[in-house]
Amino acid sequence: MTPTRRKFLTALPIAGAGVLGVSFWRILHNMNDGSFDPRAVNNPHVGRPIPTFSLPGIIGQGDGFSDHDLRAQTRPVLINFFASWCIPCVQEMPGLRAISRKIPIWGIAYEDKPENADAFIKRDGSPYERLAADRHGKTAIDWGVTGVPESFLIIPGGRIIWHGSAALDPQTFENEVLPRLAKVGL
Amino acid sequence: MFGPEQGHFALALACILAFTQFILPLWGAHKRNARWVEIAPFLAISQLIALSLSFFDLILCAVRDDFSVQNVAANSAISKPLLYKITGVWGNHEGSVLLWTLILGVCGAAVSIFGRNLPDILKGRVLAILGGVSAGFQLFCLLTSNPFDRVFPAPPDGQGMNPLLQDPGLAFHPPILYTGYVGFAVPFAFAVAALIEGRVDAAWGRWVRPWAVAAWCFLTCGIALGSWWSYYVLGWGGYWFWDPVENASLIPWLTGTALVHSAIVVEKREGLKIWTVLLAIATFSFSLSGTFLVRSGILNSVHAFANDPARGVFILALLAIVIGGSLTLFAWRAPSLTSGGIFSPVSREGALVLNNILLCSICAVVVTGTMYPPFMQLLAGRTISVGKPFFDAATIPLTLPLLLAMGIGTALPWKRAHLARTFSHLWGAVLITFVGVLLCFWQFAGALPIACGALAIWVIIASLIDTGRKIGIGQTSLNNVFSRARILPRSSWGATLAHIGAGITILGLCGMSGAQQAIVEIHVGDTRTLHGDQWTLTHVRDYVGPNYHAMQADITIRDHSGHLITTLHPEKRNFMSQNQVTTEVAIHTNLVTDLYGVIGDRHGTGDNATYVLRLHYNPLAPWMWLGALIMAIGGAFSLSDRRLRVGAPQKAINRHTATI
């Protein structure tokens, strides 16, 4: 190694640390004045168009759906990511059935075996109007899902206007989702 | 003598002592004033005494239920069991910072006591660097997170601690993990001292390695304990979440593992000097940054426990001084370090370089995945989440060649090796691995678990065969084998154990990929089948604990022929004062398979009540933590190596160079 190349290489770590340090400082600064909320990092896409995707259905539960189907809707739709292996998903089911009388819910089974998802949905009656399977969780990544259950409110044209990252119950629906809908005049 | 004011005073005193320990020896070494240098061990030990007193005072405040101390009022309660009054001291931000500085003080005192054979100047400088880091953290504790702050009027009872933390595993997790984090301060201090001196040699490698190994052992145990805790307390049946907090401990573990290996090359062959110094600095820097990221709240995590941007700014300044300072020194001095030890790519050194490259690549992947979300938000204004699929996809392809190299590495001679000749020693390992692969095919479905499992078996068998060859099994009489086993360096035994441990952990991870689970909602008396076993909910009872109400289930498990395997008693506890619910997982293990049961909600009442149960069949799960324990034991074994304890490095180096 030539001396200059050595000097260059040994200076790289400090340069890298410097870039990181300045970025951290900016993040902290933005946190202090409220323009950056780390808790919101996992709450993406609100106010944005839905990501493109096309998912197969769950056997015995229809054909699945894609972003085109979702965009073509003339009514708002709740998208609910769930899995048969998740306890909060079990718990939110009665609530979802109640909510499904007020708004169509489309379900996406996240990393779930089709037969398990099928049994899960059939057990006490399905709240879902349409169902799709995200076997390997790739679509969930595009949606920014960090854990099931998560729900998204989609308005006609395919824009996300609300996101909830916990089990959805009728009360949350009344307090958070309905006002959002009223705001956009739906 | 033992009250919060005294503890506060002792902490302030320790801070002054630490500053003195930082400045005097450095100045003394610069001016060649021996007395100022020699005072360093005395200061380090005094600092430890002051810190211990301060920590003891805080524990006393908690044990005495002194709710006039804000920290105790916020985190303790009269009804809390004594053990958790003590361990709860470090279950919150302020107390854990104090624990952190206490362990740093222990490190300084340990260098003073065990480093008698170090040259005075080097020891003085090492202690000075440790003192400087200590002083910074004690200042942080005093100025932004004082555990001795009073509250007026004092509340009659405290608010109690997070019931999730009320667990023996988690009670002892922080001290072990912190000892790992903080322990890397010693190799860091050695690296900075070497840069100031402008000299890194074989003796330096020999001094620095035991400290790195010790810290590595603690970090390994700490990470394993944390993963085990999330397995049996959180009740989700998993072991690794790729959560930022978990990554914050994995990152220094990866660079620390690389450091432990590259320091061998410095010690034996005087090679990889600059790289090793950089690793020592990087490992401690990652330990510090991990703390910073979690404490400042930049990283969004399920279990970050103190989010305060003001503290973040302070730690960032501290990091800028410690990391920025050491890396600047590195950029300035490292080019002048001469490297030695020429070796061919196929050699022990070559294998260790490969190991370093792969470990650092995995580390880069984890750092990228962890930092990507906040940075994308900052730079592009858009949010993105990075989760398990990314980490799995990016780390596994790097782990496979690492395992392959691990099996061959220890069998290769230094300087220059013949792959064909080495493989001829290891054909047995290849054969057994092949059989292992067939068994894996029979046991699992996926290609990836099979590849990983096969390589893990390869690592274990190759390590065993290599050690067997070194002690002459099959080549000489049994008596000879025993005497050879006795004189085989402990560090060699340690390496074998650690590699076998790594293999066992990987096997555990592969086994978990074959795990099965079911979530059921059933009545008492109903039975469900999972992996051929019959799980029956036989009884559910309610009872009242010391500070909670609980619902406890009896789940009997019978095998396909109706033979009773075990009865599990999972619980769900409701802590009234915090209004928090915890799950008490029930696990039946036979060291090969875990049967794992969790009870969830009750729906309905009386005879119509149904219960949500989560049932898991987890093959090889215990091996993950068993392997980690074996790794740490291997490290500890290597620490007991006579050569490290006696420490006659100069002589050893002469002997070593004579043999080359």
Automatic annotation (TrEMBL), chain A:
The record places domain Thioredoxin at 44-183
Show the Pfam families listed in the entry. AhpC-TSA
| Chief location of this protein within or outside the cell | other
Task: Output the Gene Ontology cellular-component terms.
Answer: cell envelope
User: Cross-referenced PROSITE patterns, in alphabetical order?
Assistant: THIOREDOXIN_2
Keyword Lipid metabolism annotated: no
Compartment(s) of residence: Cell envelope
The record's GO molecular-function terms, alphabetically, read: antioxidant activity; oxidoreductase activity
One biological-process term from Gene Ontology? cytochrome complex assembly
Name this polypeptide is given: Redoxin domain-containing protein
Species source reads: Swingsia samuiensis
Q: What keywords would UniProt list here? A: Cytochrome c-type biogenesis, Disulfide bond, Redox-active center
TrEMBL record, chain B:
Domain (Cytochrome c-type biogenesis protein CcmF C-terminal) spans: 316-642
> How does the record say this protein sits in the membrane?
Multi-pass membrane protein
Where is it localised?
Answer: Cell inner membrane
Task: Reply yes or no: does the keyword Lyase apply.
Answer: yes
Write out the GO biological process terms: cytochrome complex assembly
Q: What start-end ranges are recorded for coiled-coil regions in this protein? A: none
Q: Where is the Cytochrome c assembly protein domain?
A: 90-296
Q: What InterPro entries has UniProt attached to this entry?
A: CcmF_C, Cyt_c_assembly, Cyt_c_biogenesis, Cyt_c_biogenesis_CcmF
Q: Give this protein's Gene Ontology molecular function annotations.
A: heme binding; heme transmembrane transporter activity; lyase activity
Q: Where is the signal peptide?
A: none
Function comment: Required for the biogenesis of c-type cytochromes. Possible subunit of a heme lyase.
The family this protein is said to belong to: Belongs to the CcmF/CycK/Ccl1/NrfE/CcsA family.
Q: What is the name listed in the Swiss-Prot or TrEMBL entry for this protein?
A: Heme lyase CcmF/NrfE family subunit
List the source organism: Swingsia samuiensis
